[in-house]
């Protein structure tokens, strides 16, 4: 496969970066994951908005204009396929290892494209566990520094679960690599945006679909207690879409089957994807 690195399109095995890259030494960088359906990038302006917000938060000037990104990423797509672009920008290669920002260095820009492989068993629902949210205070930045997320996800996988649902001060924040929704007393609820969660693009699409289809929803905090008795729990992300959780901490969610609100939203999401591509 061909990848993009600093202005060039190269075979994957020829794309090389320095060991002094600050992404490698410090995790000093940010990323985006952008899905493409039938070969067309989905919600690109929203992904670029979030990319620019992440860059601003880490005080890195955007190496390209908004208009340039599409032209850089589109050559990586295979026509007609469902794929996703991984785009990473680090602060660049510094002359030496020093925490403070180096002067006059160029960011490293890397992008690759991979097929979207639907999560097996998604339509029958997955298991999740709740874990203490051990991440840092700036979870709204899509930072490449993912050690806490990785340890949390692995803890879930070790217990036969698909995702770790994170809990901070008695309230649910999000999954290790996903946003969370719950149906509580007939209302679709997701935690409000803030520094505790990543502002998911899939999350916003779902809220938009709820609004336009008269599905009652609210952006509100969800206590762990409320989650334990939720009618439905979903996890959302660009590559996995909307995953129903049917078992939480070894207890069934409702009757242990994906619920009616998920059925409806899943259908609306598929129609919305088709209409966009
Ligand atoms: N939260 C976290 C921590 C994530 O890593 C992700 C993306 N994998 C999401 C939420 C979902 O965001 P999006 O819908 O934009 O993929």
Automatic annotation (TrEMBL):
Family according to the record: Belongs to the class-IV pyridoxal-phosphate-dependent aminotransferase family.
Recorded catalytic activity of this chain's protein: 4-amino-4-deoxychorismate = 4-aminobenzoate + pyruvate + H(+)
Keyword set includes Transferase: yes
A GO biological process held by the record: amino acid biosynthetic process
UniProt protein name: Aminodeoxychorismate lyase
Annotated function: Involved in the biosynthesis of p-aminobenzoate (PABA), a precursor of tetrahydrofolate. Converts 4-amino-4-deoxychorismate into 4-aminobenzoate (PABA) and pyruvate.
Alphabetical keyword list: Aminotransferase, Folate biosynthesis, Pyridoxal phosphate, Transferase
Organism: Methylotuvimicrobium alcaliphilum (strain DSM 19304 / NCIMB 14124 / VKM B-2133 / 20Z)
Molecular functions (GO terms): 4-amino-4-deoxychorismate lyase activity; transaminase activity
GO cellular component terms given for this protein: cytosol
Cofactor(s) recorded in Swiss-Prot or TrEMBL: pyridoxal 5'-phosphate
Pathway stated in the Swiss-Prot or TrEMBL entry: Cofactor biosynthesis; tetrahydrofolate biosynthesis; 4-aminobenzoate from chorismate: step 2/2
Presence of keyword Transferase: yes
E.C. no: 4.1.3.38
InterPro entries assigned to the protein according to its UniProt record, in alphabetical order: Aminotrans_IV, Aminotrans_IV_CS, Aminotransferase-like, BCAT-like_C, BCAT-like_N, Class-IV_PLP-Dep_Aminotrnsfr
């Amino acid at each position: 496969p061909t990848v993009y690195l600093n202005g060039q399109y190269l075979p994957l095995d020829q794309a090389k970066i320095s060991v002094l890259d600050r992404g490698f030494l410090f995790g000093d960088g940010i990323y985006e994951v952008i899905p493409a359906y039938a070969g067309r990038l989905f919600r690109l302006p929203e992904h670029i908005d979030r990319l620019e917000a992440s860059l601003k938060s880490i005080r890195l000037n955007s190496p390209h204009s908004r208009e340039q990104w599409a032209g850089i990423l589109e050559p990586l797509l295979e026509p007609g396929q469902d794929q996703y672009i991984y785009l990473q920008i680090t602060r660049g290669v510094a002359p030496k290892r020093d925490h403070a920002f180096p002067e006059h260095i160029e960011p490293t820009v890397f992008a690759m494209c991979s097929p979207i492989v639907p999560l097996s068993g998604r339509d029958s629902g997955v298991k999740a566990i709740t874990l203490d949210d051990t991440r840092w205070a700036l979870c709204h930045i899509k930072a490449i520094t993912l050690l806490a997320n990785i340890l949390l996800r692995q803890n879930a996988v070790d217990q036969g679960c698909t995702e770790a649902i994170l809990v901070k001060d008695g309230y649910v924040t999000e999954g290790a690599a996903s946003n969370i929704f719950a149906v509580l007393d007939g209302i679709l609820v997701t935690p409000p945006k803030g520094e505790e969660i990543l502002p998911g693009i899939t999350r916003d699409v779902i809220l938009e679909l709820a609004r336009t289809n008269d599905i009652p929803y609210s952006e509100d905090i969800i206590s762990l207690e409320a989650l334990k008795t939720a009618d439905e729990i979903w996890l959302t992300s660009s590559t996995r879409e909307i995953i129903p959780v049917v078992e939480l901490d070894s207890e069934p969610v409702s009757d242990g089957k994906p619920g009616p609100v998920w059925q409806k939203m899943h259908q609306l999401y598929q129609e919305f994807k088709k209409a966009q591509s």
